Inverse folding.
């Protein structure tokens, strides 16, 4: 291959490589996030998809950010929004904007905004005025409560008012978010600002009303809580009371059961005791019956012994009789033998008399045997009769003893009950009487004490008057006692005193006492008795005179005694 061709081929290859590099350096591509607008030679061209060659010096490219941008606007404190009710609110709103993906909008954005779409802070600074104006305009038509309650309407209104303005810049408002909404602090309200003044007044009114309402709610809540606590306490107390009552009921039931068990035990013990008592009584009755049987046996034995004695006596009597008979026979035999010896000669007569004696003895013996049998039969019959009578008597006595024992037992029980009842009644009576006596003595002691206290308060004159009144009351009795020795003297006539045997005379007749009231008895006759009576009256006279003087009565004054006593009695009657 010739060298020239190779050179030309190499030059062509280099030229192509250089052309490619130049084209690659001048070619600009757009993306989904960034579009651009080429201006200059060839006119304006919006590159949304694809690319274009930018000729240096002749053409210019403005990049446009196609991504959604978040622009946050804060209006707080003194910059807070003023609502329709003249309240200030702090608002934080986020505006999501992007360049509308249309060539015309991209061209407007590139023309009005330049490269600010690539710098969100510069774009925010440019658009913030529109956003704030839209926020203020919408907030001015709503109250703070409506703004809070109707956030969606607020956002929609802001979005509607801003969208038209943004379209002029080729921007599209995707959405608006109200991320923060709250009332502005009271310290940022200016009192010299008309809106703030109205807002402060309303804020004060609302806060005070709400404070009052909160206080009312807190108090009502506290009352409800305390009421609830009280009800809970009552229920707790009720539960505790029910538990206590249940415990007491259980204890009472246990006590009742224990008492019932004790009652059953006591009843069982009483039954056992009664059975033991009945057994004891039955045993005693059996012992009594045994004693009665023993006594009856003794009595029968005595009867048998008596019968034996009687039989012995009868036998003895019979033996005596037999002895007598034998002696009589012997005597007879001896007599017969004597007769035989005496009358030996008369053998026939003796033999005949002997035979006769034998015949008489046999006859007597037979008669005695008959008598013995008769008496034995009579004794046996009497014994049987006695035994029957003794048995009947013993049975009757046993029945009488049993009946008497039961009667005595019942009578003893009735008497014991009567004694207990009488003792109880007597005790109750004594208690009532003692209580009555105690009350009476208390009243009497109180009255006596009151009388003594009243007497202690009396003056000497009143006390002397009381003493004289008492003496006046007892004066008749004293005077009567003093003149008693001479009450039997009907009349006195002294003719002569010669020959009177005065007391102390040798006769010794002035001693002794009378039978009526201590008047000296005189054994010396009527003169001596008269003299002793007068002397006794004279002995009592000083005492009576002293007493009358104490009463203010002059006994020497004629008629004074009766007159003064009459006055004293009349005075006493009037006082009564």
């Amino acid at each position: 291959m010739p060298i020239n061709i190779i050179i030309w081929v190499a030059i062509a290859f280099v030229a192509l490589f250089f052309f490619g590099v130049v084209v690659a350096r001048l070619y600009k591509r757009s993306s989904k996030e960034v579009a651009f607008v080429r201006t200059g030679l060839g006119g304006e061209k919006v590159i949304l998809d694809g690319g274009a060659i930018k000729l240096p010096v002749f053409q210019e490219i403005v990049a446009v950010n196609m991504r959604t941008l978040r622009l946050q606007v804060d209006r707080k404190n003194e910059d807070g929004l003023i609502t329709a009710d003249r309240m200030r609110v702090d608002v934080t709103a986020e505006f999501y904007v992007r360049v509308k993906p249309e060539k015309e909008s991209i061209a407007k954005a590139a023309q009005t905004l330049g490269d600010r779409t690539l710098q969100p802070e510069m774009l925010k600074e440019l658009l913030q005025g529109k956003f704030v104006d839209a926020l203020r305009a919408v907030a001015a038509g709503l109250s703070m409560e409506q703004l809070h309650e109707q956030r969606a309407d607020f956002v929609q209104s802001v979005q509607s008012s801003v969208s038209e303005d943004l379209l002029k810049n080729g921007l599209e408002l995707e959405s608006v978010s109200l991320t923060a909404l709250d009332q502005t602090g009271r310290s940022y309200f200016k009192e010299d600002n008309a809106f703030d003044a109205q807002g402060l007044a309303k804020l004060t009114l609302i806060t005070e009303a709400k404070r009052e309402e909160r206080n009312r709610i807190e108090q009502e809540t506290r009352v409800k809580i305390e009421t609830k606590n009280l009800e809970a306490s009552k229920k707790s107390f009720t539960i505790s009371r029910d538990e206590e009552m249940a415990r007491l009921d259980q204890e009472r039931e246990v006590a009742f059961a224990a008492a019932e068990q004790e009652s059953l035990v006591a009843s069982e013990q009483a039954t056992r005791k009664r059975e033991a008592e009945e057994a004891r009584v039955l045993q005693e009755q059996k012992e009594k019956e045994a004693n009665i049987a023993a006594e009856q046996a003794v009595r029968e034995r005595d009867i048998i012994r008596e019968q034996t004695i009687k039989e012995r006596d009868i036998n003895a009597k019979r033996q005596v009789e037999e002895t007598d008979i034998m002696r009589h026979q012997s005597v007879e035999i001896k007599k017969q033998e004597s007769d035989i010896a005496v009358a030996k000669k008369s053998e026939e007569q003796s033999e005949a008399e002997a035979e006769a004696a034998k015949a008489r003895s046999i006859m007597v013996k037979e008669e005695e045997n008959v008598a013995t049998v008769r008496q034995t039969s009579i004794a046996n019959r009497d014994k049987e009769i006695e035994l029957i009578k003794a048995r009947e008597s013993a049975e009757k006595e046993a029945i009488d003893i049993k009946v008497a024992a039961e009667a005595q037992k019942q009578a003893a029980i009735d008497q014991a009950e009567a004694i207990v009842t009488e003792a109880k009644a007597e005790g109750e009576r004594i208690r009532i009487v003692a209580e009555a006596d105690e009350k009476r003595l208390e009243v009497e002691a109180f009255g006596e004490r009151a009388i003594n206290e009243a007497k202690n308060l009396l003056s000497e004159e009143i006390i002397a008057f009381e003493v004289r009144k008492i003496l006046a009351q007892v004066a008749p009795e004293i005077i009567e006692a003093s003149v008693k020795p001479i009450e039997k003297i009907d009349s006195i006539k002294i003719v002569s005193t010669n020959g009177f045997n005065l007391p102390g005379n040798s006769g010794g007749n002035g001693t002794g006492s009378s039978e009526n009231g201590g008047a000296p008895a005189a054994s010396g006759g009527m003169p001596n008795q008269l003299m002793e009576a007068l002397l006794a009256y004279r002995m009592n006279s000083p005492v009576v005179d002293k007493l009358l003087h104490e009463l203010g009565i002059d006994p020497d004054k004629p008629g004074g005694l009766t007159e003064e006593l009459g006055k004293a009695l009349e005075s006493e009657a009037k006082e009564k």
About this structure: The chain has a mean pLDDT of 79. The two ends are 193 Å apart (CA to CA).
